[in-house]
Amino acid sequence: MRMNYYPPCPQPDKVIGLTPHSDSISLITILLEVNDVEGLQIKKDNKWVSIKPIPNAFVINVGDVLKIMSNGIYNSVLHCAVVNTSKERLSVATFHGPALYHEIGPNPDLVTSTTPARFKRTRATDYNK
Ligand SMILES: O=C(O)CCC(=O)C(=O)O
Ligand SMILES: [Fe+2]
Fold first, then answer.
1. Which ligand has the minimum distance to the alpha carbon of residue 94?
2. Which atom of ligand 1 is nearest to the CA of 39?
Protein backbone atom coordinates (compact mmCIF):
# COMPACT_ATOMS: atom_id res chain seq x y z
CA MET A 1 0.00 0.00 0.00
CA ARG A 2 1.17 3.54 -0.66
CA MET A 3 -0.39 6.69 0.73
CA ASN A 4 0.35 9.77 -1.35
CA TYR A 5 0.09 13.36 -0.17
CA TYR A 6 0.48 16.18 -2.68
CA PRO A 7 0.54 19.64 -1.06
CA PRO A 8 -0.84 22.54 -3.12
CA CYS A 9 1.75 24.47 -5.10
CA PRO A 10 1.26 27.89 -6.76
CA GLN A 11 3.61 26.83 -9.57
CA PRO A 12 2.52 23.25 -10.33
CA ASP A 13 4.50 23.08 -13.58
CA LYS A 14 7.73 23.54 -11.58
CA VAL A 15 7.25 20.53 -9.30
CA ILE A 16 6.83 16.81 -9.71
CA GLY A 17 3.94 15.08 -7.95
CA LEU A 18 4.65 11.47 -8.80
CA THR A 19 6.95 10.67 -11.71
CA PRO A 20 5.68 8.64 -14.69
CA HIS A 21 5.65 4.91 -13.95
CA SER A 22 3.66 1.74 -14.35
CA ASP A 23 2.88 -0.27 -11.23
CA SER A 24 5.63 -2.87 -11.49
CA ILE A 25 4.88 -5.12 -8.53
CA SER A 26 1.16 -5.14 -9.14
CA LEU A 27 -1.29 -7.41 -10.92
CA ILE A 28 -3.94 -4.80 -10.34
CA THR A 29 -3.83 -1.59 -8.33
CA ILE A 30 -6.88 -0.25 -6.56
CA LEU A 31 -6.53 3.51 -6.20
CA LEU A 32 -8.67 5.69 -3.97
CA GLU A 33 -8.59 9.41 -4.69
CA VAL A 34 -9.38 10.35 -1.13
CA ASN A 35 -10.54 13.96 -1.48
CA ASP A 36 -11.61 13.83 -5.16
CA VAL A 37 -9.03 16.34 -6.37
CA GLU A 38 -7.83 15.93 -9.95
CA GLY A 39 -4.16 15.02 -10.42
CA LEU A 40 -3.87 11.52 -11.88
CA GLN A 41 -2.78 11.46 -15.52
CA ILE A 42 -2.34 8.53 -17.90
CA LYS A 43 -0.36 8.34 -21.12
CA LYS A 44 -2.72 7.66 -24.01
CA ASP A 45 -1.73 7.88 -27.69
CA ASN A 46 1.52 9.55 -26.60
CA LYS A 47 -0.30 12.31 -24.72
CA TRP A 48 -0.88 12.86 -21.00
CA VAL A 49 -4.60 12.71 -20.24
CA SER A 50 -6.11 13.89 -16.91
CA ILE A 51 -8.43 11.46 -15.18
CA LYS A 52 -11.33 13.13 -13.40
CA PRO A 53 -12.02 11.59 -10.01
CA ILE A 54 -15.43 9.93 -9.68
CA PRO A 55 -16.74 10.35 -6.11
CA ASN A 56 -17.06 7.09 -4.18
CA ALA A 57 -15.32 5.12 -6.94
CA PHE A 58 -11.96 3.43 -7.16
CA VAL A 59 -9.56 3.64 -10.09
CA ILE A 60 -8.40 0.17 -11.15
CA ASN A 61 -5.01 0.11 -12.85
CA VAL A 62 -3.50 -2.85 -14.66
CA GLY A 63 -0.01 -3.51 -13.32
CA ASP A 64 3.06 -5.00 -14.99
CA VAL A 65 2.39 -8.46 -13.50
CA LEU A 66 -0.96 -8.71 -15.30
CA LYS A 67 0.68 -7.46 -18.48
CA ILE A 68 3.25 -10.26 -18.22
CA MET A 69 0.81 -13.00 -17.16
CA SER A 70 -1.60 -12.07 -19.98
CA ASN A 71 1.33 -12.09 -22.42
CA GLY A 72 0.63 -8.46 -23.26
CA ILE A 73 -3.13 -8.80 -23.85
CA TYR A 74 -3.59 -6.32 -21.01
CA ASN A 75 -1.25 -3.35 -20.95
CA SER A 76 -0.02 -1.64 -17.81
CA VAL A 77 -0.67 2.02 -18.34
CA LEU A 78 2.01 4.65 -17.77
CA HIS A 79 0.69 7.16 -15.24
CA CYS A 80 1.83 10.03 -13.03
CA ALA A 81 0.36 12.56 -10.65
CA VAL A 82 0.54 16.34 -10.87
CA VAL A 83 -0.10 18.81 -8.07
CA ASN A 84 -2.89 21.35 -7.79
CA THR A 85 -2.41 25.12 -7.41
CA SER A 86 -4.75 25.58 -4.47
CA LYS A 87 -5.89 22.21 -3.16
CA GLU A 88 -4.02 19.46 -1.41
CA ARG A 89 -4.55 15.99 -2.81
CA LEU A 90 -4.48 12.59 -1.15
CA SER A 91 -4.57 9.14 -2.69
CA VAL A 92 -4.16 5.61 -1.44
CA ALA A 93 -2.86 2.96 -3.82
CA THR A 94 -3.11 -0.71 -2.88
CA PHE A 95 -1.01 -3.02 -5.00
CA HIS A 96 -2.33 -6.56 -5.45
CA GLY A 97 -0.25 -9.36 -6.88
CA PRO A 98 1.82 -12.43 -6.11
CA ALA A 99 4.62 -12.32 -3.55
CA LEU A 100 7.76 -10.92 -5.16
CA TYR A 101 9.74 -14.16 -4.76
CA HIS A 102 7.18 -16.09 -6.89
CA GLU A 103 8.07 -16.80 -10.48
CA ILE A 104 5.79 -15.11 -12.96
CA GLY A 105 5.52 -15.40 -16.72
CA PRO A 106 2.94 -15.55 -19.50
CA ASN A 107 0.11 -17.98 -18.80
CA PRO A 108 1.01 -21.14 -20.82
CA ASP A 109 -2.54 -21.24 -22.27
CA LEU A 110 -1.84 -17.89 -23.95
CA VAL A 111 1.46 -18.95 -25.52
CA THR A 112 0.96 -20.51 -28.96
CA SER A 113 2.89 -20.75 -32.20
CA THR A 114 1.16 -17.60 -33.42
CA THR A 115 1.41 -15.80 -30.07
CA PRO A 116 4.86 -16.63 -28.68
CA ALA A 117 5.87 -15.62 -25.16
CA ARG A 118 6.67 -11.92 -25.03
CA PHE A 119 8.19 -12.10 -21.55
CA LYS A 120 10.55 -14.56 -19.91
CA ARG A 121 9.55 -16.49 -16.81
CA THR A 122 11.31 -15.09 -13.77
CA ARG A 123 10.74 -13.76 -10.28
CA ALA A 124 8.67 -10.57 -10.08
CA THR A 125 11.58 -8.72 -8.47
CA ASP A 126 13.88 -9.53 -11.39
CA TYR A 127 11.65 -7.73 -13.91
CA ASN A 128 12.57 -4.48 -12.23
CA LYS A 129 16.33 -4.92 -12.66
O1 LIG B 1 -1.85 9.66 -6.71
C2 LIG B 1 -2.23 9.09 -7.73
O3 LIG B 1 -3.27 9.36 -8.32
C4 LIG B 1 -1.37 8.02 -8.34
C5 LIG B 1 -0.68 7.15 -7.32
C6 LIG B 1 0.13 6.06 -7.93
O7 LIG B 1 0.17 5.91 -9.13
C8 LIG B 1 0.92 5.16 -7.11
O9 LIG B 1 0.98 5.35 -5.88
O10 LIG B 1 1.52 4.22 -7.68
FE1 LIG C 1 1.09 4.09 -9.72
1. 1
2. 3
